[in-house]
Write a structure and sequence with these properties.
Number of helices: 5
Number of domains: 1
CATH class: Mainly Beta
CATH topology: Porin
Helix content: under 10%
Shape: globular
Length: 310
């Protein structure tokens, strides 16, 4: 149950809420002015990032509700620690501390979660050779089912990932700015899923198209304000994608965390959705809410809160 909730927690979600701007100067396509810590500063140096998620789904006929409240502590534009509190089916929240270890070059070499009893529940170990990722090993200590061991090779602008004990491999293609523009996965020599990504001159993702096991066509919309998450998540940028599952789509992650401006809407296979963003009077984002009801079998809600040093 817990692993299922954590897997679903990584999904990027959509909302059908229509938004009525209060002040066009500070809402650029969605949301309202206000919120946050009360400061009207334009300083985008973050101190904490909060991401709360509620997921309701029916899994093999069984209704499941999970709530995850995550707080990330930030210093010098890097996540230094955090907590994840998870509740399933109304159970008491289980809180785990996120511990991140870096090498002398600032690269993440270990990422683990420790529960309230002091036990490590899961751990990711990253190895580098000549400054690039050569291996990622993940271990979920309660169950070996989700463990993986990835190896990486590099050829020009293509990074190839293979998994020990699996016939699945994945290739990541980057452009001249080292941004991922294509992710393609293979079972042996047979291509099973391809996602292509496009960007505009501002540095925002404009579209992502996936074919194969997953079929999707998404375009992305943004406001005109600076995304404070970009500088934080560009730290160890490529690692975000190298440790995902072969079937995970990357477009939503790029829109939310790695684009220049704040993601405020998307069009999924022809259907448009707006998100609810709030700003202070200087145009600094203080919250974003993403909620969608897919019907009785699936609904999501994401609530993000942005706190700053000033």
């Amino acid at each position: 149950m817990k692993k299922l909730a954590l897997a679903l927690f990584t999904l990027t979600l959509i909302t059908s809420c229509d938004v009525e701007p209060l002040d066009p100067a500070y809402t650029q396509g969605g949301g309202s002015q206000g919120g946050g810590s009360g400061s009207e500063s334009a300083d985008l140096t973050m101190s904490t990032y909060e991401l709360d998620t509620q997921i309701n789904l029916v899994f093999f006929g069984i209704p499941i509700e999970t709530i995850t409240n995550s707080d990330f502590n930030i210093a010098n534009d890097k996540i230094i620690s955090g907590t994840n509190a998870l509740s399933a089916e109304g159970s008491p929240f289980e809180t785990e501390n996120l511990i991140i270890t870096r090498n002398s070059s600032g690269q993440i070499i270990n990422d683990k979660s420790v529960n309230s009893s002091g036990a490590t529940t899961n751990e990711t170990v990253i190895t580098y050779i000549n400054g690039v990722v050569s291996n990622i090993t993940y271990e979920y200590y309660g169950d070996d089912e989700d463990d993986y061991n990835y190896n990486f090779t590099y050829d020009g602008n293509i990074i190839t990932r293979t998994e020990v004990g699996s016939t699945i491999s994945t290739q990541f293609t980057v452009d001249g700015s080292d941004r991922v523009i294509k992710k393609e996965s293979f079972d042996g020599d047979f291509s099973i899923q391809v996602e292509t990504v496009s960007y505009n001159a501002a540095g925002n993702i404009t579209s992502s198209t996936t074919t194969g096991e997953t079929q999707s066509n998404t375009t992305y919309q943004f406001d005109n304000e600076t995304n404070p998450l970009q500088v934080i998540y560009e730290d160890n940028y490529i690692l975000t994608f190298l440790k995902d599952d072969y079937s995970d789509e990357i477009g939503g992650q790029i829109a939310q965390f790695l684009s220049t401006n704040n993601w405020n809407g998307a069009t999924f296979s022809g259907t448009a959705f707006n998100f609810d963003l709030e700003y202070n009077s200087a145009g600094r984002i203080v919250s974003r809410d993403i909620a969608y009801d897919f019907g009785p079998e699936l609904s999501f809600e994401f609530n993000e809160r942005f706190s700053y040093v000033n």
